[in-house]
## 1
Amino acid sequence: MAIKHVPSEFPTINEALANAKPCDTILIASGVFTNFGDTVIPANLNTIRIVGEGFDKTIIDGSACPDSVGITLSESSFITVESLTLKGFNDNGILVRSNNNIINNVRVMNTELPFANKDGIRIEGSYNMCINCQSMNNGADGIGVSGDNNYIIQCRVSNNNIDGIGISGSNNLMFGNIAENHTNSGDGIFSTDPSNIYINNIARLNSDDGIDLESNNNLLLFNVCSHNGNDGIEVSSNNIVWGNKVTENLNGIGTSSDDRSNIIDENMCTDNIENGMLIDGDSNIIDRNCMADNDETGIFLGSTSEDNCYRSNLIKNNGTNVIDKGTNNVMDSNIIKKPKKKKPCH
């Protein structure tokens, strides 16, 4: 293993890579660097590391490099990129097309193109991990994932032009992320593909939904969705929505008329502007939730709802506790209390 120093030994990352071997480390000094252009990791350089001095110290500025991607990983795998900032690129800050890479402690900001796939961090490969990263003020999504079996862990995405985290692959894990302040009709987290896992994420202050899953067979566990302009959580079919806290949104948890067979269990839906839950569709299980202090309705089952089970829920202190306009919905063992002085769920 050898350490290649940029810029004292090699003026750019690309020149250091041209002289590197697998297992080498490219160490970038503190400073603002405007002349790197597109950094592309070539083939046959598996296990390379590109390491800065910290994202407040090593800043790669692409504003003088039109039509450029900050760093592209496509021909080699098991690459680590860490401890630096990429800003001002027209295209992606980081584009990952290969597999088994780590993006750690990287900040991407101010990418310019407001088009699909021009995300701050774009992951198209598989088995990649993006951890402890920040992605903000980018033209498209903060983090976009179109590959399968990737891991987005403890990242913070904010003020991006489309969504915070956009998922169009399957079997990905989103754990412990914060997605906030997407105000251009954006969701905190948005997915079109099935079979992903969302645990302990915070989605807040987004103009559309906190978490919007237009896909099936997902798990949402222990997320917090608050102060979003539309639903805190919106799901399609065959999802498990368990133990989430959904508060001060337009609606708490919502399903549409074609959505069915969700398990919605042990969630707290409180202080939402309209409904704690807004349920259309059929054959959903709604058990052991708390729906309290919502301005209009605790649980609203719409005219297209059918054969839903809502049981053992605590429904209290809402403008109206229950409205059921559907067919053959089964209500059993719920605790329903008339509006009175507001108290938290117990």
## 2
Amino acid sequence: MLILYEILQAAKEAAAFREDKIKLEKEVEELTLHLQLEKQMRSDLEKEIQLQSQENV
């Protein structure tokens, strides 16, 4: 019976690990998208600043 209990515990742990993995993957995806957006915004801002400085010359 002890072996069966250990197998069931291992199965529960594996399921919990899978759920945690899925949550982490979603969080990584969200953070990646956020980072890409911030990079694009920074690039756009730098271009705008460069254009303004050229206009002031």
## 3
Amino acid sequence: FGKPSTLDPEEFQEMADHTTVGHQIVTGVQFPWPRIPEIVRWHHERADGSGYPDGLLNEDVPMQVRIVGLADTFDAMTSPRPYRDQISLGSTLTEIVRITPQKFDPAAVQALLVQLRRDAVGSNRAPFLETSAGHLAAPDIDHLAAMLQHKASNGRVYVT
């Protein structure tokens, strides 16, 4: 929209329709990866059923879709918008962890944090988080944010 303020309900619905319109466009296209249509449709679904367009619960959404949905949220939060500045990496990660597992799959969040850690330290593959999902401690996030501060200030952080 490019609007410098929050969307009204009608504008939000129009924006939310991108999931179903996109799904209609890509359905029937032969992709090398067959999950593309469901990713396009469901990437705004949330674990607690509060997402759109179908209000699905976590267990009803394939893991690949959960991962793309988390990546989309991470990108949206860390990118500037017409109505707000970009959110810092530390604040983004703190908020994502705060709303996990209500909104995001804990395993997907842990994988994101581990990948960001790996990107921050290059070839150093030292353990960052405990291996069981759900052990997402604030000190871990603070440490990650501090390590990535230099990298993030010199360019965009990409999750690979």
